[in-house]
Amino acid sequence: MIKKSIRLDQGNGGKEMNVLIDKLKKFLPSSNWTHSDDDSAILKTDIGFFGLTTDSFVVDPVFFPGGNIGKIAMCGTINDLAVMGIKASAVSLGLVVEEGFPEEDLLQIMESIGDVSRKTGVPVVTGDTKVMQKGKLDKIIINTSGIGITDTILDKPLVPGDKIILSGSLGDHAIAVLSQRFDFQTSVVTDSKPLIDEVFSVKEFIKQAKDPTRGGLASALNEFAEKSGLSILIDEDSVPVKKEVRSAVELLGIDLYSLACEGRLLCVVSSEHASKVIGVLKGFNPEAAIIGEIFEDAPGSRPKVVVKTRFGKRFLPMPSGNIVPRIC
Fold it and tell me: Are 193 and 216 within one domain?
């Protein structure tokens, strides 16, 4: 009997990964933690909502325009808590390094981690370091976990008419990484950054939020739709995308909406607060935009994401297949 093997597409943030995770979760006992399918798991306590998140980073190449694996590891974990309405209190850092990896590069990665820690006030309080034999690992893997506590989390119900807001241009991080992997020229740099300031400047108005990392905008929007039981309409002309990113996407033949971001806030707010929120977020990034809205489909219809283009409307499904690997 031939045993099934794990495939690359099962770790890329799309439909196949979700199916694999569901299989794995069946072996685990239940708990009183909630939101395990969101960016952070939540435990309601007498003193507030306790949040916990973890992520492993395998980006290739390790260094890319505007950042490196250390920067996105730190930002990614801080952001997974931030989009739940929680400021990280502390982060753990696990390093698995290949024998022969340049020490100078490792120190540069740690410098980036320290920079993010200082700027956000989020300390790295514990960690672990392992070294693997040369050839047994591809350069370096970083695992980070984060914890924090808050009085309120971002988990209000969505209703038809709510607006979808994206805090900056789409696809910058992925194209910055791919420019190094495939050796093409671009001025695009990673969008990687902590989202604490953006989130907490408008937290009172946010119903739900995500940072569209693995699986990109397509995955995040479909998660909103599935969780709420409502559909989403996106106006393609309203989605901020740099010309160089569009050109690179066409050159490489990849899906823009599935590309990972590492410093973008995707949030849902009521229509009455949308103008105020977008005004605040434009202070952080002038490319911030309202890109769509929630709507109620016909009774009995499965929730879906629809993109309005110049040529009509099309469905935007949960990403599937071999999405660009090792972007984060």
Answer: yes
Which helix (H) or strand (E) segment holds residue 198: the answer is helix 196-202
DSSP-based three-state secondary structure for 232: strand
> Residue 199 contacts by C-beta under 8 Å, 6 or more apart in sequence?
82, 83, 85, 154, 206, 209, 265
Which residues, in sequence order, are CB contacts of 161 under 8 Å at separation 6+? Answer: 270, 271, 293, 294, 295
**Residue 59 maps to which CATH number?**
3.30.1330.10
In a domain, residue 23? The reply is: no
Strands 124-132 and 88-98: parallel
Question: What phi and psi, each to the nearest 5 degrees, are found at residue 195?
Answer: -105, 10
Domain of 287?
163-315
Q: How many CB atoms lie within 10 A of CB 306?
A: 17
Q: 206 and 290 share a domain?
A: yes
**What per-residue confidence (pLDDT) applies to 98?**
98
pLDDT at 11: 82
Any alpha helices (H) in the chain, and if so which ranges?
15-25, 69-82, 103-120, 172-181, 196-202, 216-228, 243-252, 274-284
Peptide bond into 61 cis (omega under 30): yes
Secondary structure E strands in 162-201: 163-166
Non-local CB neighbours of 49 within 8 Å, separated by 6+ positions = 42, 43, 86, 149, 150, 151, 152, 153
Is pTM beyond 0.70 here? yes
d(CA 137, CA 133): 7
- Write the CA distances from 104 to 60, 109, 110, 266, integer angstroms: 18, 9, 10, 36
Task: Give the 3-state secondary structure of residue 219.
Answer: helix
Q: Is residue 94 included in any domain, yes or no?
A: yes
Answer whether residue 1 shows pLDDT above 80: no
At which residue do the structure tokens 């045993």 appear? 3
| pLDDT for the residue numbered 325 | 83
Which helix (H) or strand (E) segment holds residue 252: the answer is helix 243-252
